[in-house]
Specification:
The complex is a heterodimer.
Chain A (H helix, E strand, L loop, with lengths): L2 E12 L2 E12 L3 E5 L6 H8 L7 E6 L2 E2 L4 H7 E4 L11 H11 L5 H11 L15 H13 L5 E5 L7 H16 L3 E6 L2 H7 L2 E6 L2 E6 L1 H7 L14 H9 L6
Parallel strand pairs in A: 3-8, 3-9, 6-7, 7-8
Antiparallel strand pairs in A: 1-2, 1-4, 4-5, 9-10
Chain B lengths: L1 H5 L1 H18 L2 H21 L10 H30 L2 H6 L7 H27 L8 H28 L3 H6 L1 H6 L15 H9 L1 H13 L6 H28 L1
Helix pairs in contact in B: 2-6, 3-4, 3-6, 4-6, 4-7, 4-11, 6-7, 7-11, 7-12, 11-12
The chains are: A alpha/beta, B mainly alpha.
């Protein structure tokens, strides 16, 4: 299988603190890869190194077959980063944000690209409102839409649903699933196990500077505590109750 | 690298466009920037002015150059502020992870500063005209004044870029202009330096504001400018180059 990301023995320290001791993993092309880890485990550090924002201290990392330090320009041309905080310009409208990115990606038909993405992400009605008036979920959708301008082969989503309400989280999940269906590789970091379970083809757990396990969900399930058969009453979770009450609230 | 270079100006254009929208959509920043210098102008002309002996008939004419410098110093602190805010938000990281000319982000901010300060300067000159400011300067002199003010803006803006890039808090980012706003007071901007005690006078006569103020004042009143112009230009260009080098260094560190 072709690889979108190959990381071998990656190391990174901040002053005395060794965040990444030796990180090794591969991400298959067109898959959704979830990197799990608690806060401060170094997930964002890995994303920043792969997105050429940080230089590693040791080891190798290649993105779309380009080395992140030697060929950083090539890497930047083939990826998109959606950081932890929605990277939208709040003073600009949704449409203007998309057009701005399309121009910076040097696309010729930036208006058309913006229109298509507004359509695809259900933001047509809000297109000409300033992003500061958007809800958290809409802002995230715009953010991801901005990352898709120019059809990058690989997109990084760093904790895309942190701070979102349950509905918005499901919106984002749907977007991510759709992305993977269209052939884009998605590198996702999250601290929500459920999110990884819902979305990922491949899961890796980062702990104390190393990837301690990785594989498909099925593989992980096989390797870890054997399934027990228990009979329990299925109570709805609070999330299910919340969503049932709210129903399909009209999206604006 | 080829592709990057080819797009450098285009990228700056896009950055300038979006950051200009920030200014046109929050015109209150222009008001915030101009209100203090205008207040100073009113205060000095109508309250203190009567007691100040400058040897000219019209104190507004005497005062205006210093007021413009104060306005620009205040205005450039917004560059530090906006840059700092950009870095706090994810948008800066997004730009950095894209294949765009790396310094385009900075140039966008710097050009925006130039445009917004030009607007502030125009507003203040209009107010001064209402207050009785008159100038015998010709087109060439006005162009020279615009040039000096533009260089002064660039010098302070690149300094503001260093501050914006290395500040730890919003307050830190916007506080840098205070000492610069204060400098014109210890110069020939409000009173002739001859009236100051020797030590203060020595400082006043050798700091950049005096040369810049004197050069602009001479140009406005249609007198021969002499040495002040070259001293003023040397200061502006010198500060600009040094600040530019350090700003780029600070930027590379962040990238």
């Amino acid at each position: 299988m072709e690889k979108s990301i190959q990381v071998k023995e990656l190391k990174k320290s901040f002053k005395q603190h060794q965040v990444l001791k030796s990180v090794t993993f591969d991400v298959g092309k067109g898959s959704i890869f979830a990197l799990l880890g608690s806060n401060g485990a170094g997930k964002t550090t890995i994303v920043k190194i792969l997105a050429t924002l940080l230089k590693p201290d040791g080891g190798n990392a290649a993105v779309n077959n380009f080395d992140v330090t030697a060929k950083s320009e090539k890497v930047r041309q083939s990826i998109s980063l959606t950081g932890q905080f929605a990277a939208v310009d709040e003073i600009l409208t949704g449409r203007e944000n998309l057009i701005m990115i399309a121009r910076l990606r040097h696309l010729k038909n930036s208006r058309q690209v913006a229109d298509d993405l507004l359509n695809r992400f259900g933001l047509v009605d809000a297109a000409d409102r300033r992003a500061s008036t958007y809800s958290g979920g809409m802002r995230r959708r715009l953010d991801i839409a901005m990352s898709l301008v120019g059809k990058p082969r690989l997109i990084f989503l760093d904790e895309p649903t942190t701070g979102l309400d349950p509905e918005a989280r499901i919106e984002v999940w749907n977007v991510v699933k759709e992305l993977a269906n269209s052939g884009t590789t998605v590198f996702l970091t999250t601290q929500y196990l459920e999110e990884a379970e819902q979305l990922a083809d491949q899961i890796a757990i980062l702990h104390e500077g190393r990837i301690i396990v990785s594989g498909t969900l099925e593989e992980l399930k096989k390797r870890f505590p054997p399934a027990k058969v228990e009979y329990i009453e299925k109570q709805p979770s609070l999330e299910e109750i919340f969503l049932a009450i709210i129903g399909k609230k009209e999206e604006k | 690298m080829e592709t990057v270079k080819n797009h450098f100006l285009g990228d700056i254009g896009v950055m300038l466009g979006s950051s200009m929208r920030h200014i046109t959509r929050s015109m209150d920043t222009i008001i915030t920037v101009t209100i203090m210098p205008i207040a100073f102008m009113l205060l000095f002309v109508y309250v203190f002015g009567g007691a100040i002996q400058t040897g000219t008939d019209d104190y507004v004419n005497y005062l205006l150059p210093g007021i413009l410098l104060i306005a620009i110093a205040t205005g450039t602190s917004y560059t530090a502020y906006r840059l700092f805010m950009d870095m706090q938000r994810g948008i800066f990281e997004r730009f950095k992870s894209m294949s765009i000319a790396r310094s385009a982000t900075l140039w966008g901010h710097v050009l925006t500063s130039l445009v917004s300060n030009a607007i502030s300067v125009a507003v203040i000159i209009l107010v001064a005209l209402v207050m009785g400011f008159r100038s015998s300067a010709g087109v060439l002199s006005w162009l020279a004044i615009a040039g000096i003010l533009a260089l002064f803006t660039l010098a302070l803006t690149w300094t503001a870029v260093i501050v914006g890039l290395s500040a730890k808090s919003v307050d830190g980012a916007s506080a840098f202009s205070y000492p610069i706003v204060f400098l014109p007071f210890i110069s020939s901007a409000f009173v002739p330096t001859e009236s100051m005690p020797p030590a203060v006078r020595a400082f006043a006569e050798n700091q950049p504001m005096t040369a810049i103020v004197d050069a602009i004042r001479a140009l406005l009143s249609g007198q021969t400018v002499g040495n002040d112009l070259w001293v003023a230009l040397a200061w502006c260009i010198g500060i600009m180059l040094v600040a530019y080098i350090f700003a780029m260094r600070a930027y590379k560190k962040r990238v």
